[in-house]
């Protein structure tokens, strides 16, 4: 087995995302916890693994994790790892498969490298190994929140006559566009940098469009980690969708 210290950044991101996913699956398989308690335990276990591994293997880089106390130290770094140990904690605790592990690397604020593990599907999508995108169907499909689809997303879906596909985590939704289960992921309900850094990096590496809903680039490692909206879609659909959003 390759020593983790010899891995490239992209290989490391994929290795860490996959390994954290295995930890989470093994924890869930014990059957000793469920629901919120399982989600909380999973967040802690995966976060401890990811933060410790990054501190050891990339000691000069900054780290921003949903499950760790943020510090201003990262703001002086050009390279910052942005991780979400369990994206879709609710889905993980419910025994579903639409949850993810995000390991992203922002370089000078851009989503440069990333891996999104979908442990329930035994899959890791990554920036250094892009896969071919399936052909888009005649009727487009839009992934939306299982419980609270954003009004803007519903309006755009209606204008496009797009089929709605309810799904859990942000990472699972973004990766659904790559996997061919959806064609559009439009989110305006509020997110943080860890929710979309790795998914955005992976989407861009696969030739997809990924931006804010006003078309501006996604920017990371800011003092305020709130990053409320996101559009991931095929490039040929982006202009029309952005125009519809502006009028929604």
TrEMBL record:
Q: Per the UniProt record, which EC number(s) apply here?
A: 3.1.3.7
The residues that the entry says bind Mg(2+) are 66, 84, 87, 195
Q: Which CDD domains match?
A: CysQ
Provide the top EC class: hydrolase
Q: Which residues form the signal peptide?
A: none
Decide whether keyword Metal-binding is in the record: yes
Protein's name according to its UniProt entry: 3'-phosphoadenosine 5'-phosphate phosphatase
**Organism, scientific name:** Paraurantiacibacter namhicola
């Amino acid at each position: 087995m390759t020593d983790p210290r010899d891995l490239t950044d992209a290989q490391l991101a994929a290795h860490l995302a996959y390994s954290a996913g295995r930890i989470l699956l093994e924890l869930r398989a014990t059957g000793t916890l469920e629901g919120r308690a399982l989600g909380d335990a999973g967040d802690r276990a995966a976060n401890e693994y990811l933060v410790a591994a990054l501190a050891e293997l990339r000691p000069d880089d900054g780290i921003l994790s949903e499950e760790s106390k943020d510090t201003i130290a990262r703001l002086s770094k050009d390279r910052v790892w942005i991780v979400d140990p369990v994206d879709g904690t609710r889905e993980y605790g419910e025994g579903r498969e639409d949850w993810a592990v995000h390991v992203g690397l922002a370089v000078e604020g851009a989503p440069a490298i990333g891996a999104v593990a979908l442990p329930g599907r035994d899959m890791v999508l990554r920036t250094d190994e892009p896969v071919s995108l399936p052909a888009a169907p005649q009727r487009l499909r839009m992934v939306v929140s299982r419980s609270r689809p954003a009004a803007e997303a519903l309006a755009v879906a209606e204008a496009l006559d797009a089929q709605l596909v309810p799904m859990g985590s942000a990472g699972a939704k973004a990766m659904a566009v790559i996997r061919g289960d959806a064609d559009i992921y439009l989110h305006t309900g509020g997110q943080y940098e860890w929710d979309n850094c790795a998914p955005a990096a992976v989407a861009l590496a696969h030739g997809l469009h990924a931006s804010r809903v006003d078309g501006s680039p996604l920017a990371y490692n800011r003092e305020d980690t709130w990053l409320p909206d996101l559009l991931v879609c095929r490039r040929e659909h982006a202009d029309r969708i952005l125009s519809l959003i502006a009028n929604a």
